[in-house]
Write a structure and sequence with these properties.
The model is unreliable at about 1-20 (pLDDT under 50). The chain has about 375 residues and is α/β, with parallel strands linked by helices. It has helices at about 35-45, 65-75, 90, 105-110, 135-155, 160-170, 195-205, 225-230, 245-260, 275-280, 295-300, 310-315, 330-345, 345-360, 365-380; strands at about 5, 25-30, 55-60, 80, 95-100, 120-125, 155-160, 175-180, 210-215, 235-240, 265, 280-285, 305-310, 325. An eight-stranded parallel beta sheet has the order 1-4-3-2-5-6-7-8, with helices on both faces.
Length: about 375
């Protein structure tokens, strides 16, 4: 069972390299709740055992992480819960490699100088927020200033898109940057047969053209653009999925109430996303900041047509007019794209099928795990 650990020393021998080339890696995260980067760990780490890489995940001992801790252990990944970030250098000293996945600059400041080498960073950070100027310029100056020093002091950085790799090298000055593109479980995220789709839609109560809008409620996910779009498309139903206890979540709910939007529902966090992808008609992702979106890949693997924004990270995944539609985040343009797909179901079906094929060729979870294994082995030796 996972537990909160004290700063007492680790038992002798734990984490030391075993006979036969086994590598023991500690993944350290300060995540306060579950987001895409934690799902990435949950998907990838169990597969690394096939490359004789044993992983231990260090998670905060807080309630929002209980469920994902349980899922890690069910998948065969060791979990240690901690209460104090500053205990981690001592707790991880016997591992062959330490990998930090930080939400805040303070985490890197606390860990990178004090962890035993080799110490790496894995970055899913969105890096560049496409806010209107001058807000975007403010963020563009602040981000490299807060995290760049620690990325440069790490022995290497692993990130998940070519765009992000170039950004970290060029704007943050890190020298050793490795890119392993995200992958998805194509056997879990797959297109539904007609009978299954009809049953899922009945179960969810989907009766009209249904727009799925997943993601934690945050400014960069831009759900406010999606709910504004819903106001101009009363004939379409919008299902919002994700944590809602933020200011953005409260604003979205207030907007719905103020305009009495009957076509908007908020479903909170869900663990049945594969079924939702198979039941919905389109994915709407009006994001203004991504690295390489797992939501996008999951929807593509499910053959769900996508309407998303034309920012660099999304354009790296979605080929406009072939595997999805890239649209500026203006609610009026988003509505136009959604209505076009609703009016032309055969066109929507083609986009979904081509997206599925693209994922099968380039973004399977097995391809991703093989790349991560290669980087970790190189980093540990």
């Amino acid at each position: 069972m996972n537990r909160v650990v004290s700063p007492s020393p680790l038992a002798k021998g734990v984490g030391k390299q075993r006979e036969g080339g086994s590598v023991n890696v500690a993944f350290l995260t300060d995540a306060p709740r579950v987001a895409g980067s934690e799902f990435w760990l949950l998907d990838v780490l169990p597969l690394l055992r096939g490359d004789d890489i044993q992983c231990t995940v260090f998670l905060r001992g807080t309630e929002p992480l209980h469920e994902i801790a349980r899922r890690f252990e069910a998948a065969g990944v060791t979990v240690q819960r901690y209460a104090d970030l500053h205990t981690l250098p001592d707790l991880t000293r016997h591992f062959d490699l330490r990998v930090v996945q930080g939400w805040t600059p303070g985490t890197y400041q606390a860990l990178i100088p004090n962890l035993q080498k080799p110490r790496w960073v894995v970055s899913h950070d969105q890096l560049d927020f496409h806010y209107p100027p001058p807000l975007r310029q403010t963020y563009a100056e602040a981000y490299p200033w807060t995290k760049a020093p620690w990325f440069r002091r790490a022995d290497g950085v692993l990130t998940v898109s070519e765009w992000a790799g170039d950004f970290i090298r060029r704007r943050m000055g890190a020298q050793n940057v490795q890119v392993v593109k995200n992958g998805v479980k194509t056997g879990r995220f797959y297109p539904a047969a007609p009978a299954e789709r009809a049953e899922l839609r009945r179960g969810f109560g989907f009766t009209r053209f249904t727009v799925l809008v997943p993601g934690r409620f945050a400014p960069e996910k831009n759900q406010l653009a999606a709910i504004r779009a819903a106001r101009h498309a009363p004939e379409l139903d919008f299902i919002f999925v994700g944590d809602m206890d933020s200011t953005v979540g409260q604003l979205a709910q207030g907007y719905k109430g103020f305009f009495r939007l009957q076509n908007v529902q908020f479903w909170g966090r869900r663990w049945d996303m594969p079924e939702l992808y198979r039941a919905a008609d389109v994915l709407l992702q009006p994001t203004i900041a991504e690295n390489q979106s797992l939501v996008t890949l999951e929807a593509m693997s499910s053959a769900l047509p996508i309407v998303t924004t034309d920012i660099p990270a999304q354009a790296e995944l979605v080929q406009d007019g072939k595997t999805g539609l890239l649209v500026p985040s203006d609610p009026r343009l988003l509505v136009t794209a959604l209505k076009a797909l609703a009016a032309h179901p055969e066109r929507a079906r083609q986009l979904g099928e081509q997206a599925r094929q693209y994922v099968l060729e380039r973004h399977t979870l097995e391809q991703c795990a093989a790349g991560v294994a290669r980087v970790l082995r190189g980093a540990a030796t």
